[in-house]
Amino acid sequence: MEKILSRSIRMICASGAVLGMQAHAQQAPGAGEAPMVKVEVTGSRIPTANLEGTSPVTTITAKDIKTDGVRNVESLLNNMPQVFADQGGNVVNGATGTATVNLRGLGAERTLVLVNGKRLPMGSPTNTAADLNQIPAPLIKRVEVLTGGAGAVYGSDAVAGVVNFIMQRDFQGIQVEANVSGFNHQQNGGEVAELVAKRGASNPSQFAVPGDKGWDGKSRDASILMGSNFADNKGNATLFFSYKKEDELLQADRDFSACTVSSTATGFACGGSGTNATGRIQALDGPQKGKVYTVDGSGNARVFNNALDQYNFGPLNHYQRPSERYGFNANIHYDINDKMRLYSDFSFHDDRTTGQIAPGGIFGNSATLRYDNPFLSQQLKDTLGITPTNPVEVVVNRRNVEGGGRQSEYRNTSFRELFGIQGELGIWFYDVYAQSAKVIYSQSEQNYFSSQRIDKALDVINVNGKAACASGDAGCVPYNVYQTGAVTPEMLAYLQIPGMRKGSTEQQFQGATIGADLSEYGWKLPTAKSGIGVSFGFEHRREKLELMTDAATQAGDLSGSGGPTGGVSGQYSVRDYFGETKIPLIEDMPFAKQLQLEGSYRHSNYSTGNKTNTFGLGLVWSPLDEVRFRGTYQKAVRAPNLIELYTPQGNNLFDMDADPCAGETPSASLAACQKTGVTAAQYGSISDSPAGQYNYLQGGSTALAPEKSKSKTFGVVLTPMRDLSLTVDYFDIKVDDKIDKIDPATTLSKCLATGEARFCSLITRDRTGSLWLFDNGRIIGTQQNIGSQHTRGVDIGANYALRAGEWGRFGIAFNGTYLDKLTTEEIKGEGSYDCVGYYGANKCESPNPKWRHKLRGTWSTPWNVDVALTWRHINAVKLQNLSDNPLLNDGDLSEGHGTNPVDRELGKRDYLDFAATYTYKRNYTLMLGINNVFDRDPPLTSQLATGLGNGNTYPSTYDALGRRIFLSATARF
Fold first, then answer.
1. I need a surface site. Which of 84, 296, 533, 875 has the fewest CB within 10 A?
2. Do the Cβ atoms of 391 and 267 come closer than 8 Å?
3. What pLDDT is recorded for position 692?
4. Beta-carbon contacts of residue 876 (< 8 Å; ≥ 6 apart)
5. CA 720 → CA 10, 16, 631, 872, distances in Å?
6. Where are the beta strands (DSSP E) in 722-787?
7. Would you say 952 and 942 are in contact if contact means Cβ atoms under 8 Å apart?
8. Residues 148, 63 contacting (CB under 8 angstroms)
9. What is the average pLDDT across 348-376?
10. Are the CB atoms for 375 and 483 separated by under 8 Å?
């Protein structure tokens, strides 16, 4: 009797990436043992007994997850060559508090995440990509990663592919699991450590070389899995409880990140930010107009020294955010009869994490300094030319070192409930379901100054010999930035204000599918033994998002927060009609063991007015049992998400090495700079951003059209002998009408080069000529349908198992990806650039290695001990400026393309991991593992992309924190 249904895959030979499978649960003898003859394969909804699909699918089993020793789902996926780094626990500046997966480097928003074949809700009101923190690692049975567009099967967002998490079900008994891990790191010295030690001799408060770490950055988690059959084995209920906690780890805890590096022609230097601890004071008028000063311990002014006075902001930044998470999952099913099953899934998670970056303070507020200001020394007044009749306007930058690091506490709480009924009506298999999900989000900000209060606190007058605020506000406390050690708690209490954001996302969908093998109706070709398979379905989905911000956040009053964050509110619904067919053309004939054609189609009707059609074609040919060719062609779409549609306009920040029109000797000509709004009087006297960050105007647009993508895959699966499988799969994915902003740095560069109004009209300079000092100096960078994105490459997989008699069983598994192309056309008709083998801010972002692989060898000994040794390899990447493409090198064709040697390459990395498992009486398991056995430091650079770049490297790509030791214990009853 055929039982239903699991949206699953058993592609052990075809996937080329299965590293082993281990049953971690006692299966329920009744409900769990009913034969599952026909199942749904990931990438198709047609029930079939053939467990190999046309699309390449890579599988990670529960045993692989344990062997990898990582308890964060994003870290587990990041170890796969097909996955590129994205949001996670190592992201601080630019964090969303969520964890996301980015397949093929096309963006997390183009990767669809499923749990047991059903779509996860939007992760938060600030990041619509699915939050992997909702998925508890101990409950995962396996993960299936499908490459290429699958929009006709699963709907919008399945552009780069699909990640489907299959969770434990039908469990009977009790399983208790506990895990602990931490980093054991030896400070290996090197150039950065030597720089820190040298600077620490004269500035120990900011520069300190850390000692070796025996056990830091600890992570602990525990879980209980319990289940039982009921009603004479007609049903099963499974419950899961989990808890996880991770400790913080600062950049100060590693010698290679104990200072924020800049670079020179001879090597690294300890750089930092011009917003420093003793103040950065630039005269806007008076006899010293344009000159920059700081103050010494006596309050006297001296010329600001970039080499010595910049603030070392790195040490207080988190390298690993602290987090705490609770989770609960439940699934239940009941067989009404042998043809009908009721089922329900429920999941809950509550995750809190805090991201800390360097102290805030004053980031370029103007102030008028009067002669009678009690805070000013006579020497400072004389230096700036302040007289009783001639005040001087200055721009002040100062770090709030007295108040501590800026902190953002994120909390995401999710609820997801699924109800359904599935069964058989004759030869037809049906599934009717409904899901409701909600994510509740909050974010609180601490230790930020109010920009409005800064202006008032800097506008100081003399009242009876005492400093007072010129505004006369009763609560105003003047702020003394002109003498060291003069900041009082009362000053901080006035200036520091909290910020708050809260909101939610909601998802509701209802659907029904029906499918069958039509052979019983005689629907099969005379050249085939199997009948034609079909599936039809309908889904209605509603997505809703709401983000509310307090008055200070909405007004952009939090100094150093990047600009105003307004509320977002919106929703849309979509109706999908879809169908599939599988047509066996030839079976069991010479040179055609199997020849099968597949097709899929979906029509989507959005409440926003967009209508889309997607389709897919697939072909499988097996000339012999040992050889299988497969290929697909897919057209997919991604509708604009609610953030892209409805985000209100407001300032944000973008990275740029320097403003070509700023400084005493601008790199761009006066004529070129005038096109961007610079006047002749401003040219040569514009102050550049000390942090390399500039304003741009962000915002959504309801005029956005859906993205369109086309993907092609072609591969071969070889099984020349028992226990050996080899796979080679080519992929080619192109996205047109990509939804994104044009990089503001590109807009500026195009205006300087061409003077075209379509670029120059987007640039506004403030009254000083800068793009950062005042809010009205900015470049427009709102969402639009820009150019295209294109990637292609080859996945290679191999699996071999050797039975060695009394010595047990040996296995080898290999998974590698060769990346041939990763291009972006930022502006239609203006050319594209290829990021394969490159990294860099704004364009290529985090490293895009040409080759990555993971090779694992296992030995299942006859003594109840399993041993695994894993080699992970990441190819070297170069700085994007070294490309011959002028869109990446800014037209600089000089030797080194204007870059410094230490930034030109992030060297290759090879990591060796070890794990050993001991099983006692089948029910008790102990595991010890070490990742990055040789404690290799990551490659370093000063050219970081904000967000994924952190601590002078890319910690989501490389093992930045050192050797990781993990212990695990599992007991089953």
1. 296
2. no
3. 85
4. 837, 849, 905, 906, 907, 908
5. 19, 14, 20, 27
6. 724-736, 739-740, 763-764, 778-780, 784-785
7. yes
8. no
9. 95
10. yes
Bridge-partner residues for 467, per DSSP?
462
Residues 6+ apart with CB under 8 A from 379: 298, 299, 300, 301
Six-digit token string for 553: 């956040």
Instruction: Choose among 563, 557, 280: nearest CA to 398.
Output: 280
CA angle 556–562–568, rounded 5-degree value: 60
Reported as type and span, the H/E element at residue 14 is helix 12-15
For Cα atoms 719, 721, 725, give the angle at the middle one, nearest 5 degrees: 35
Per the listing, tokens 């067919």 go with: 581
Which residue from 902, 753, 888 is spatially nearest to 822, judged by alpha carbons?
A: 888
Measured CA to CA, the distance from residue 467 to residue 478 in angstroms comes to: 7
- From residue 682, give the alpha-carbon distance in Å to each of 289, 290, 661, 678: 12, 10, 9, 6
3-state secondary structure of 270: strand
Of 20-24, 54-58, 315-319, 653-657, give the lowest mean pLDDT range.
20-24
pLDDT in tens, 86-110: 999 999 998 999 999 999 999 999 9
* Neighbour-count burial of 243, counting CB atoms closer than 10 A to its CB (0-12 exposed, 13-18 middle, 19+ buried): middle
pLDDT at res. 155:
87
List the strands of the sheet with 877-879, edge to edge: 838-839, 877-879, 905-906
491-513 average pLDDT score: 97
pLDDT tens digit string along 575-604? 999 999 999 999 999 999 999 999 999 999
Q: Name the residue among 68, 66, 50, 62 with its Cα closest to residue 13.
A: 50
Which of 144, 184, 44, 49 lies closest to 959 in space, CA to CA?
184
Cα–Cα distance between 955 and 74 in angstroms, integer? 13
Alpha carbon distance 528, 404 (integer Å): 73
The pair of three-digit structure tokens given for residue 833, joined into one six-digit string? 């650039």
Residue 305: exposure state from Cβ atoms within 10 A (0-12, 13-18, ≥19):
exposed
Q: How many CA atoms lie within 13 A of 905 on its CB side?
A: 8
- Rounded Cα gap, residues 863 and 53, in angstroms: 38
More confident residue, 930 or 896: 930
Chain mean pLDDT for the chain: 91
641: phi then psi, degrees, rounded to nearest 5: -85, 175
CB atoms within 10 A of CB 669: 13
| Cα gap 537→154, rounded to integer Å | 11
**Which one, of 531, 510, 508, lies nearest residue 521 by Cα?**
531
| Helix (H) or strand (E) run with residue 673 in it | helix 670-675
Task: Measure Cα distances from 114 to 118, 151, 166 in Å.
Answer: 5, 13, 9
Q: Considering only CA atoms, which of 41, 125, 111 is closest in space to residue 74?
A: 111
- Torsion angle (degrees, nearest 10) of CA 23, 26, 27, 28: -170
DSSP state of 494: H
Tokens 């930045």, located at residue: 960
In order, the DSSP letters of 813-834 are EEEEEEEEEEEEESSTTS--EE
CA 472 to chain CA centroid, Å, is 47
Helices (H) and strands (E) in the chain, counts: 15, 53
Instruction: Round to whole Å and give the CA distance between 745 and 946.
Output: 14
Q: What is the Cα–Cα distance from 869 to 916, expressed in whole angstroms?
A: 9
Amino acid at the residue 36: M
pLDDT tens, residue by residue, 516-574: 999 989 999 999 999 999 999 999 999 999 999 999 999 999 999 888 899 999 999 99
Given a contact cutoff of 8 angstroms between Cβ atoms, the answer to whether 3 and 423 are in contact is no
Res 642: pLDDT: 95
Paired sense of beta strands 533-549 and 496-517, if any? antiparallel
Q: Which residue has the tokens 């970081």?
A: 944
Residues 6+ apart with CB under 8 A from 912: 869, 870, 871, 872, 932, 933, 934
